[in-house]
Amino acid sequence: MAAPTQGPEQAPSFSSPQQEALLTLMRTADQLHRAMQLRLKPSGLTVTQFNVLRILRGARPVGLTCSAIGSRMITAEPDITRLLARLKTQKLLCQQRDTHDRRVVWTHITDQGLELLASLDALVDQAPRDLLKELTKAEVQDLTRLMKKAQGNAGAENSPQPPAIAKLPLPKSPHRHPPE
Asked: 108, 73 in Cβ contact below 8 A?
């Protein structure tokens, strides 16, 4: 599926318009992901790490469990525990064990994590405008509508968790031990 990098251009060969659309969408998603990665690189965060911190900022002050963070991720992360451990080492988040069920660990963003996110807010807010500047407002709206429609067909069968689990409400006052 890789495009040639040298030599004569190959005429694209697709078995259907749907295949062309899917491959174009996948390639575009990869290019946009890389562009975001380059923007975040000076901060020392990956797009995935930024996403975790963004999720935790939105979950303040209660915090989230590991599985709840995973269910909110943009892309599935197979080793969310290790990802959280790296962010904890950087002091961007802290974790607390639930007092009633010691298997449950609540994760919270730290002040240092909040400061880092705040320093990136303008950059991250500007990125979609820069990356999609060739599209008109109407085209962006059409693109979003079409991607949501396509996502509806793929989402249920590829979701890491059943939709019912992902929509469970958060506990209002979890029982926690002091931060570790």
From this structure: no
d(CA 113, CA 50): 10
Length of the chain measured in residues: 180
Tell me, yes or no, whether 119 lies in a domain. yes
Mean pLDDT of the chain: 85
Name the domain count of the chain: 1
- For the stretch 112-141, pLDDT in tens is 999 999 999 999 999 999 999 999 999 999
Q: Please report whether residue 5 resides in a domain.
A: no
Q: Which domain holds residue 109?
A: 37-166
pTM recorded for the entire structure: 0.77
Give Cβ neighbours of residue 102 (< 8 Å, ≥ 6 apart): none
The enclosing domain of 139 has a CATH number of 1.10.10.10
Single-letter amino acid, residue 158: N
Cα(62)–Cα(159) distance, integer angstroms: 25
